[in-house]
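Sat 14:20. Reprocessing the chain from the morning session after the first attempt stalled halfway. Input below, unchanged.
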Amino acid sequence: MSKPVAGHDVVVVGGGHNGLVAAILAASGGQSVLLLERSPHLGGATLGEPVFAGRPTRLSRYSYLVSLFPDDLAAELGIALPLASRITSSYTPTVRDGHASGLLVERSPGAATEASFAALTGGASEFRAWQQLYGELAAMAAALAPHLRGPMLRRTQVQKRVIGAAGQQLWTDLFEQPLSEMLLRRFADDTVRGIVATDALIGTFTSLTDESLLANRCFLYHLIGRGTGEWQVPIGGMGALSDALWERARAVGVQIRTNFSVDAVTETAEGVVVTGETVRGGRLNFPAAYLLAAVAPVVLDGWRGVDSVKPVGSQLKVNMLLDRLPQLASGIDPAIAFAGTMHLEEGYEQLEQAYRASAAGEVGEHLPSEVYCHSLSDTSILNGERAHTLTLFGLHTPRRCSKQTRRGPLVR
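Finished this time. Tokens:
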């Protein structure tokens, strides 16, 4: 039998950064709050730890940059969240006509970016198209970001703000048709199209041509954070964020229980009862007026006895620790190339081909990937070690394809 426990105003299930934020805000508002977490540690995807055996470098296994975390939210929570800007937005190695080169996009695109576009595409039109699009996106971000924390806007309200800030064409491009139509119309170069497209694919599994506009939704989330669309490096690693949230939660009186696995939620006349199991096998009931579930929807459905389809992951992440950064055939300084997001095999057609192959359960000819070096922007995660971290994200790599092997060398 489950043992009842004294009730709380709010039970939060899930001790990742979303759950910690919810718990802090509720407790700061005068509610009695209990936070339940299945694992031994709080932090979830933001947990920082020494992931390399015997080495002091501390890194998050999962999330790594900050954008959709407004400064005013950090202030309201009462936490410090120091962030650093990356000097490079992206670098994309290319080989054309046997010549190794690459497309450099600075954080604030200037002369070096313009020259890089001209060298790759043979003219100025692609860079002008890039400036036009990202100017419109910046205007949209400034108009929408202030509303991320308020009541959800109606579609007509969002439409009015986007058109007013950035024009009718951007509204059509992002909200009314597949992103592929915008990419093919605005840009002529396949590599440039692909660089823009990756913000629509990291974190989801879809085609750029899909009528569901799932890629558009992902693109929007990547481009409106902080009112600029910039993704910044958390000083101390992402674990510094979870540590700050955990300390603040304790300070405002949140009760925390780890190693507790929730398996059922029951609604009552007074609120809810959350039931689960301790690490030693004991069962407990936690009654509360409200439940805040910082978990995936499919998990919540399971607690409530509702059948739902479990999503399939489509991203591969590999964390690496290197004595030095690799030299590139193009001759660019690795400290510039790896400081932002490096795009590998991410041309528009390569991305679409990789999606079609993986949707069919196969590993395709191309393996679109992104590589980034946290330690170039923040050496504190190294804890005095003379090394560099590299993080690789593989797109369109569903788990069902993991047993497939690729013929030929993986490095070339």
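Confidence is low (pLDDT under 50) at residues 404-412.
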